Description:
Elements (H helix, E strand, L loop, with lengths): L16 H4 L24 H6 L1 H9 L3 H19 L9 E2 L8 E7 L6 H4 L1 H8 L5 E5 L12 H6 L9 E4 L10 H8 L16 H10 L8 H8 L16 E5 L2 E5 L10 H11 L5 E5 L4 E2 L2 E2 L10 H6 L5 E6 L5 E7 L5 E7 L28 E3 L2 H16 L10 H12 L13 H10 L8 H10 L9 E8 L3 E9 L3 H5 L2 E10 L5 E5 L8
Amino acid sequence: MSAVRAEPAGGPSRRSTGGAGWGCHRPGIGAQLAPVDNRFSWLRPGPLIASRNDVLARWFGDPTDDQRREWLRRLDAYARAEGVPAPPRDRLVARFADRDRISVAVLGDPGEGDASQYVVVPVLERVAADTDLGIVCSDVVYPAGGVRAYADRFYRPYAGYPAPLYALPGNHDWYDGLTGFMTAFCDAPPDAGAPSPAMAGPLWKRMLRQLLWRRAPKATAEDVADMRWFRNADSQQAGQPGPYCAIDAGPVRLVLIDVGMDGHIDSDQAEWLCAVSAGDRPKILLTGRPIYTYAHVQACPIEGGGDVNDIVTDPANHYVAAIGGDDHNYQRYPVLQPDGRTIQYVVAGGSGAYLSATHQIPNVDRLAPAVHEEAFRCYPLRGDSLAHFSRRYDKLLGFGLGRLVISPDDATTLMAERVGIAPPRPGSPAVSERARRAADRIFPLPARGTAPAHNWMSLLFDSNAVPQFKSFLRLDATRDEIVLSCWAATGCREHELDPVLEDRVRATRQPDDRWVWTSETPGRPVP
Length: 527
């Protein structure tokens, strides 16, 4: 496909430390684009306090199912009041349906509004400016939604992206009752306010939740008009029919679901999902929580019974991939199905939020025979993740003395030993005892920690230092070919000018209408 860019000569991080961004001598211009008055940090108490609805929902019950139903009812009411057609009941976007080929940019969990988000922008505009549409996959805005927060976290960074942007909400977008999301993507009035959470349980419990629950910050139509100035071209307008929808993107159907705060879907959405999943058109699911992550399968329950993955794996539905945000890195699992098909399960949450460590991903052979370590890909590489976090730990816990710092070469060797794999690129032939002691302190043994616990540490140890290890996806499709590419954003100027292709897989349609995937990065072909 001519629209798919060739891999640059420098190659991905699997081939060199320079490809990973180590030794960068000239920081890029992307970080300089971030508003100077919006230096986001999870170390400040404000973002965590503003996100308290997540904890309250676990204590008192998740209200998102009822709020989502009310939002959809409101969209119909707004349309009637304005005398315009209501959103289609099938929540289907058909404006791209007649395309013979399609290109899509996918940005996962971008919305911190600081350097870690803006470093992606120059690479996005270089390798995805010609895409037909973009999709923000989970957590459009951190830390807790709010209409006005979209100015520096959505409208400003993507002002130069010429195509329409659609989105699916993540848990952080629900912390304001989805008010900001519905205003930005579904044209809900900004002053409407979030639907009131349904209350249940004893009086004291209802009163306590009412007292503690964070309300959506107020905004005006003028606020929205000011923000939309950044993306006011006709070609940039989307018009989304709800927080979940399907997009007929030429030869493929993109199915966007809303998993709320706790990672499930309601029964109404499940009924819709079954309906839009039917038919022979190849489909790609996009969700706020990945189905495969950290070498295990993550449930996505359906209200009333069942799981979303049951729909994805049903051969009658013709899913070829499932892409999820939430974990802030890139992971790809080519999962062999019992009937011989392969579905690509992708974690794509690396477009701006704090880095989620990949060195805690265990050997993927634990999932065999469905998927093997040799076919698995992640970015950053496990060794690069360990080297990155060693610098952060040394600065915050080691007084900056360098005793906890592990070089990328040492980290590559150490992680290959720990996981039991061949190094993805050449590492140190001999690792010093100091580096081994540092790794023992930084990387807890499997009995001492879990991936979710280390993600919390990733949040606390957020850093905007180069290399940034950010990424986004580009999807290119025709009737007979689907190409999924992962592009890196290191924060280095040389990689803004000559972007790094980290991973690519290509599916070709066979005469019997099966899709066969082949990896185009180092490693054996995907089964």
